[in-house]
Amino acid sequence: MFSTAFLDIPALQSAHGEVQLPGSKSISNRVLLLAALSSGTTTIHDLLDSDDTQVMLRALEQLGCAVVRSTDPAHLNSYHITGIAGQLAPALAARSTALFLGNAGTAMRPLTAALALLGGHFEMSGVPRMHERPIGDLVDALRQLGCKIDYLGNEGFPPLRIQPVAAAQLQLNAPITVRGDVSSQFLTALLMALPLVAKQQDVVIEVAGELISKPYIHITLELLKRFGIDIHNEQWQRFTVRAGSRYQSPHEIHVEADASSASYFIALGAIAASKGSKPNAQGGTTSVDRVVKVMGVGAQSIQGDIRFVEAARAMGAAITSGPNWLEIRRGTWPLQAIDMDCNHIPDAAMTLAAMALYANGTTTLRNIASWRVKETDRLAAMAIELRKLGAVVEEGADYLTITPPANREAWKPASIHTYDDHRVAMCFSLAAFNPAGLPVRIEDPKCVAKTFPGYFEAMFSAVRAVPGSVPVICIDGPTASGKGTVAAAVAEHLGYHLLDSGALYRITGLAATRAGIPIDAEHASQIAALIAQMDIQFGADQQVRLDGEDISLAIRSEEAGMNASLVSALPAVRQALVQAQHDFRQLPGLVADGRDMGTVIFPLAPLKVYLTASAAKRAERRHKQLIEKGIPATIADLRADLEARDSRDMNRATAPLHAAQDAFLLDNSEMGVDNAVAQVLSWWEKRQPFGKAQA
Ligand SMILES: O=C(O)C1=C[C@@H](OP(=O)(O)O)[C@@H](O)[C@H](O)C1
Ligand SMILES: C=C(OP(=O)(O)O)C(=O)O
């Protein structure tokens, strides 16, 4: 997951590949609650691992359920949940339990209903936004039954206090009325909880007002059925929970992949999986069929958002499907503008707003007033952010019209504010296919953790950037100038990959020594041949593995440094390492640290920094590093060594160490790491178009 302050997505060109999507949030949290209310153990496979399910899992543990995650590396998302058989343990019922439910509507609403009927003392709270999301209609319905629920903050909103009511005092005879026009989750909550008390008699729920987001009620009814509860549904207006209802664990259940999450990849295919061509060996071109394949959800899904497929087709996507997969290609291009009632797909409809950026006219999305009470006011948020890109947007009380930027020049570089709303972040990643070739900045990308923590990684695995658009920041400089530390910090700040090219030379030196090959010009081609066989991995905290073995310490010795300098003077070795270094340039970007990153390896890099410090300072720093690692050294020796090394690095025939002409010079002798990092980041920021566009 990208936990950076922002994520800059370079201009993208095409999409192609297979993506396995994580589990459905709506199914995961329903199945968890139903397993918790059942007796015995339910094994849930492919559960979504995200913020929304984490808060549910934690709540279930607090309610006395045993929650055991599989330790099998192939099935880490399988969980064994042992339920409470519809009853709280007496000790738990006697004390007050505080449950924190983040911003998960699918946890807050259903748990409120279940706990109000289970008979205990609870306080339910969430993030500040959750305290602005309505729950009054559900509380009103539960109060009709005699449940005791108080608002601890604003009337109609969490946080809530729940107090026990004796089962005998519940009024189950008259139908309960619940409003259905603000959120379907209130009805879902009642449907899932009422079997707890529908023992001697039927319990009837009547829906007042138009029921929105109906397909989510379908998910609820389907899953209740799998837990042995059959509810009589009369025209989506009246639901009867039958007397004698009892949750029965199916023992084992699989969670489908999330259909709402699929919408971003369906859009990706519709926008960018077009036939292309690539150069072939004969000097001509071969055509390539690009397709995005989504695994884990398909035509047989019980999720309403699978109907996003119809909407995407209406806009021009070419989609084929199997029971649990979808294959998407670009069909009509540009996409067709549509005018659609989106009440049945409230979440996925946001993706249509992003697709509308690529349509041939004005798209209208109707009947989406519920957007206003979700993770943020989504109608307002989408309008503001789409306008930043250059679209013309009309925001109505319950609709949105989107007219894309009139032409290439009308697209604007934008820093997208994401309002702690996962869907805003995911939707706007699609703007990186803009015809102007502009990058897109997504602020607070970690907000995708609500339902899809690995979203950006999954997206990057299925897209190709416009050639040359993946940025590289080069940080070159002499030994012990601090470039490794600065480069790692810059990479971490931006969420970019890191290439420690010096380590590549150290690794090569080590591999040659271990293979008994002398490091000299005579053996250069032998060493170069070795490189092709090396399996190198850079991990966090400067960890380096060679063929699986952790060699982080071995390559940091002074001897390894000397060997690195020797191998790096061999042209054949440098040549063999060029491709290896270019391969590190991957989405979303690269910070490359070394001695010839800006001069030789990435001469067109958009930012080059030459980092230096005085020989005295560098010797001091290196001394400190070695002593901390328990490696003995003296400052005088180290200084002599590094001056010798400077002169060898600067005077070698191939790629001698010097600052690229267009590099910024940064002498950090009297500067802390934080300031050096801040300086590099500020140079980088000045190269970005975002600030200027919004100033
Ligand atoms: O029941 C569910 O799982 C959901 C219902 C929908 O909410 P509303 O019924 O409030 O529209 C949807 O937006 C939400 O993401 C999940
Ligand atoms: C509205 C959403 O979430 P919640 O389940 O919290 O209502 C959503 O995921 O888009």
Tags for this model:
alpha/beta; binds shikimate-3-phosphate; UDP-n-acetylglucosamine1-carboxyvinyl-transferase, Chain; EC 2.5.1.19; 4-stranded mixed sheet; 35 strands; 695 residues; 5-stranded parallel sheet; 3 domains; ATP-binding; Rossmann fold; binds phosphoenolpyruvate; elongated
Mean pLDDT score: 95
Low-confidence parts, pLDDT < 50 over ≥5 residues? none
Which structural class is indicated by helix and strand composition? alpha/beta
The major pleated sheet works out as:
5 strands, parallel
Integer count of domains: 3
- Proportion of strand residues: 15-25%
Q: What is the CATH class designation of the largest domain?
A: Alpha Beta
**First CA to last CA: what distance?**
30 Å
Helix content: 25-40%
What does this structure look like?
The structure is a single chain. The chain has 695 residues and is an alpha/beta fold. The chain folds into three domains: 6-21 and 259-274 and 289-465, UDP-n-acetylglucosamine1-carboxyvinyl-transferase, Chain (Alpha-beta prism), CATH 3.65.10; 25-254, Alpha-beta prism (UDP-n-acetylglucosamine1-carboxyvinyl-transferase, Chain), CATH 3.65.10.10; 472-694, P-loop containing nucleotide triphosphate hydrolases (Rossmann fold, 3-Layer(aba) Sandwich), CATH 3.40.50. It contains 23 helices and 35 strands. The protein has a five-stranded parallel β-sheet. Strands 3-18-20-19 form a four-stranded mixed β-sheet, with helices on one face. The chain has a four-stranded mixed β-sheet with strand order 5-6-4-15, with helices on one face. α12 links the parallel β25 and β26 (440-443). α1 (25-37) runs parallel beside α2 and α8 (259-272) runs parallel beside α10 (349-355). The mean pLDDT is 95. The structure holds shikimate-3-phosphate (S3P) and phosphoenolpyruvate (PEP). Shikimate-3-phosphate binds at residues 26, 105-106, 183-185, 188, 212-213, 216, 346-347, 370.
